[in-house]
Amino acid sequence: MSVDLDKLAGVVDDAAVTGTAIPQLSESASFSLSEAYDIQEKSIHLRLARGERRVGIKMGFTSRAKIIQMGVDDMIWGRLTDGMLVEDGGEISFAKYVHPRVEPEVAYLLKEPLVGPVTTIQAMAAVEAIAPALEIIDSRYKDFKFTVEDVVADNSSSSGFVVGPWCAAEYDHSNLGMVMEFDGRPVQIGSTAAILNNPARSLVAASRMVAEVGERLEAGWIVMAGSATAAEALAPGVSVRNSVEGLGSVSFKVAG
Ligand code: 0L1
Ligand code: MG
Question: What is the Å distance from ligand 2's center to 1 Cα?
Fold first, then answer.
């Protein structure tokens, strides 16, 4: 029997909108990785139909720390909309999420499209600017447990993202120290080198991976390069900051 991808897209969208934990889709339906990306795309269409605008993509599982934390071995990606953007220095409501976590990242802003396989040099030539960033991930699955197909269908846990000051892209950013703090206390320390040895490689992977579903990275889009460290669980009242050597810092607060 063929799987109803529209129905599954509705299930993950509803869970994200209501902040409700759901069982893994794979417990009751069998679908391939490629169908998981179809479910993801359909769930994003539901957001776009509600007036949200596509603004880029996030890359996931780009560092060893994340691969070990989640027990996976492949990169994944998800689609970003303006409805997920949290203002730098802004506040989020904990109640809106299921069990949110946060990751220290860097983000790229593209000035030109990137299409299919490209070299690191070509990828960086398309970059307008780079910024310190934070990703708020929130798997809609109970206990943050899922198969790779499940998490991809759930838009790779994309939930929110915060982008700090944009800096010139020529800046060598392949090995910059990063510190993520909760209430001024370091909770994760890493380097941009933890992101595929150079986060520009995440951009290369992003261009290749979106081409597999017929997309390209558009000028004006933001690409979240993936976490340099394991994710940290958020709690009401906590203030989060990610400081990246030479790039500055980005922050938000969880309402108490
Ligand atoms: O690195 C990532 O952003 C992966 C997110 C999906 C898996 C997770 O929820 O940790
Ligand atoms: Mg991430």
Answer: 34
CATH of 5-254, one of 3.90.850.10, 3.40.50.1820, 3.40.50.300, 3.30.450.40: 3.90.850.10
Q: Which of 103, 157, 161 to mutate to test the pocket of ligand 1 (most atoms within 8 A of CB)?
A: 157
Phi, psi dihedral angles at 47 (to 5 degrees): -65, -45
State the DSSP code for 218: P
- The reply to whether ligand 1 has any atom less than 6 angstroms from the CB of 36 is no
CA distance 117 to 211: 8
- Alpha carbon distance 164, 106 (integer Å): 9
Domain boundaries, the chain: 5-254
Kindly state if the Cβ of 40 falls inside 6 Å of ligand 1.
no
Could you list the pLDDT tens digit for every one of the 256 residues in the chain? 689 999 999 999 999 999 999 999 999 999 999 999 999 999 999 999 999 999 999 999 998 888 888 877 779 999 999 999 999 999 999 999 999 999 999 999 999 999 999 999 999 999 999 999 999 999 999 999 999 999 999 999 999 999 999 999 877 899 999 999 999 999 999 999 999 999 999 999 999 999 999 999 999 999 999 999 999 999 999 999 999 999 999 999 999 8
What's the pTM?
0.96
Hey, what's the torsion of the CAs at 168, 172, 176, 182, to 10 degrees? 10
